[in-house]
Structure formats: C-alpha cells, structure tokens
Design a protein that fits this description.
14 helices; 19 strands; 416 residues
Length: 416
C-alpha cells in the first residue's frame, strides 16, 4: 500500500548518492531537489509542485539518487514501491503520455549539450541528411549511403539539389551493387533469444502485419529526417550512428526487444541519429498516428519505454560527465571507470580488468581523436597501468583509474 510520509521543515527525504527505490508523489508542502550541474559544477535547484512525482528515474533505473530532496516546509509525500507506481502509471493514460514526453525532452536536452561540447555544428534537415549520406560514402558504406540519398529524394522531391543528389545516388548504387555481387550468398542469420518481455508481448499474430526485414547495412531511419515511425527489434541488431562534423561516430548497438525512433515522435523533432541494420534484422514498425493509441492501450509497452528512457538518460549523463573533464588523462581514466561500471565483476576485490575495446572505442567514449587517445593511453602504458592488445586492453589496477579521476578530473570544460 502507498504510504503517506510526513516530513518536518528541513528534513532530508533522501540524499544524492543514496540507493533508494521509492517513488514519491507530493501531496502537500514543498520539496526542493538540489543537484550539481555536470558542466559547470554549480548547484541546481528545482522545486516539486503538489501532485508531481520525484525520484522516478533513479528508482526505475535502479541507479543512485542524482539529487538531494529536502522538505522546505512541513510536507506530506506519498511513497510508492516500484510495483505500486507501475500499477498507478499503467491505469492513467494522461500520466503515461506526460511522463514519456517529459523524459524524452530531458534526453533530447542532454543530447544537445553533448553535441555542443563536441563542437558538432547543427545543420538544417536537408543539409544534415546529405552530410550523413556523404559520411557513409566516404567510409565506403555505399549501401547505407544509397539508402540515405533515397530517403532524401522521397522526403524532398522539390529540392534544388535534386539533380546532384540523383547523381550521387547512382554512383553510390553502382558501387554498392559491385560489393553486393562479391558478398552474394551470405546466409540470413537472425539473432533472437526470444527472452525479452517486450518480445513476448508482441509475438501475437496480429502484430505480424507491422513486421519489416532489413539487410546488412540497410538504413532504417536516417539522422535529420522527420520522425513518423518507431520500431521494436524482433531479431538481429541495430547500430546507432551519428554524423559529427562530417565524420560517422558509433553510438550504440541495440538488441532484440529494444525500441528505437520513439523520441522524434514524442517531441515532434527530427531524428537525432541514424539507425542501420547490423546484419539481418526484423523489426515491428509502428507509425506516428497510432503511437499514442498503441502506448496507452498496452501499459506494459509504456513501462518498457519509460524504463528505457531512464537508462538512456543515465547513460547519456554519464558520458557527458566524461566529456566535460578538461584534463585528458583524467578523461581517459574515466572512460575505463565507465567501462568498469558497464561490466561489473563478480569479485570486487579483484583489481585487474579486461575490456574488449580498441583505441577507436576509447576515443569515441572520450570524444577525442584516435591520435590524441593513443598518446594518452601510451602514458598509462609507460607507467605500467595499462596493457594494450589488438582487440582488448587490460587495466592492471582499476583503483589507479579512480585515483586519476579524483585527483585530476575536477576541472570542467565550461568557464575555463
């Protein structure tokens, strides 16, 4: 049963860094949420209004609290377990859409901050799509370049650049066909463990009409194009990539049971990344018109999306924390701390860690060039802190990375 909690003026409901999976609804009084801005290091305060939730993201994502909650006056807040919140959430259609839009907007804002710190120049939608196509072409991913050019021609048939785009498409298609002829005969291999709850939810025959298949390298959605559909991966893997100042950067690889493309629908914005098939892929495609009906009619799906946003917001904030570290040695060290968080070990007393990453992977997480990253890692190698191999690295003592971050990572990029 939800429990009404009474707090006197000045009481701490929870501290930043706490493990606490309660979710609260403000009933009466006033609560102040205080945290530290990742970029500036300055304190940030937000007051919770009556009827609003707080503590949702950390509870659903099973993360430590990101803020301290303090009662400004005598306050009553209702505390719910995760299960109690899920029941309440699932039975309130207005709440479902409101929270999804709020979380989507929060994630979008973090994306914008990340792009700003990476000095990624924002383009208009048409120029952006052409830059994405060019980045694929330059890396000889001609099939993907063709797909983006084709999407551009369908989206913008009256573009003054149409003749040039058609020529580039034909050139990319010719090259793609040559590569396809070499690779012809590769067997179709769908990766699907069938264990995801979202997969089980959509195994009904009624959903089969939404199914679409994609070949390796095929672009499902292109960065900068308008968002009018979203997807659930049934089998295979989908790679997320982003065009940063004309260069393609890998963001993530999504597995069966995961959603993508929902952000652009929720906040009516252009796509923030390109999603392409990493191998043979089967997805369910849902359009913008039936999004709200589908979500509110399937509370389990809405909860999965909400938890997905919690994870993505946390992950994006964690990466942003790395990018704002000015000291490059500390920044590289924090990348290894992130990798350690992503790959927890059974025996925490064991200090040595093996990470299946390359110089290029670390450079991506650190927001640095491969050359700068190699130079910084070589400093660790020379001090016998890291061993580097072709496809993996060994951190000899993970505590050394933590000490480096703690002692050298305090300076942030903003205002320096």
């Amino acid at each position: 049963m939800p429990k009404a909690m009474q707090y006197t003026k000045g009481s701490i409901i929870y501290f930043e860094g706490d493990h606490d999976e309660r979710i609260f609804i403000m009933q009466q009084g006033a609560v102040l949420l205080t945290s530290t801005d990742i970029e500036s290091g300055q304190p940030v305060a937000e007051q919770v209004k009556s009827g609003e939730f707080f503590g949702v993201k950390s509870a659903l994502g099973h993360f430590r609290r990101e803020e301290t909650a303090t009662a400004l006056v005598p306050t009553v807040a209702v505390a719910l377990t995760i299960q109690e919140f899920e029941i309440l959430f699932s039975n309130n259609k207005a709440l479902i859409m409101k929270m999804l839009r709020v979380f989507s907007n929060q994630l979008r804002q973090i994306h914008k901050k990340t792009e700003s710190i990476l000095n990624n120049v924002q383009a208009d939608q048409q120029s952006g799509m052409l830059a994405v196509a060019k980045s694929f072409y330059d890396e000889e991913q001609f099939r993907s370049a063709c797909d983006v050019y084709m999407k551009f021609m369908k989206r913008y048939p009256n573009s003054p650049q149409m003749a040039d785009v058609q020529k580039k498409y034909q050139d990319a298609k010719l090259r793609a066909d040559k590569l396809a002829a070499v690779n012809r005969g590769t067997p179709v291999d769908y990766d699907d463990d069938g264990s995801s709850s979202s997969l089980k939810l959509f195994q009904l025959p009624a959903f089969e009409r939404f199914a679409k298949t994609y070949e390796p390298g095929e672009v499902i959605i292109a960065e900068y194009e308008p968002g009018d559909s979203f997807y659930l991966i049934q089998s295979g893997r989908v790679q997320l990539v982003k065009c940063v100042n004309g260069s393609k950067k890998n963001l993530d690889v999504l597995k069966p049971g995961e959603f993508f493309g929902e952000m652009a629908i929720l906040d009516n914005s252009a796509r923030s990344a390109t999603c392409m098939a990493a191998g043979n892929v089967k997805c369910l495609e849902f359009n913008k018109e039936n999004f709200e009906l589908l979500i509110t009619g399937n509370p389990q799906m809405a909860l999965l999306l909400l938890k997905l946003f919690c994870k993505r917001i946390y992950d994006q904030k964690r990466r942003f924390k790395i990018l704002v570290i000015k000291d490059l040695t500390a920044r590289i060290a924090d990348v290894f701390m992130l990798l350690d968080e992503m790959n927890p070990v059974m025996n925490e007393a064991e200090k040595q860690r093996r990470f299946n990453v390359t110089i290029s992977d670390v450079a991506h997480w650190a927001g640095l060039s491969a050359e700068v990253t190699r130079d910084e890692i070589n400093k660790f190698v020379e001090r016998r802190k890291i061993e580097v191999y072709d496809n993996y690295m060994i951190v000899l003592n993970i505590n050394d990375m933590k000490r480096t971050v703690d002692t050298r990572g305090g300076a942030r990029s903003a205002g320096l």
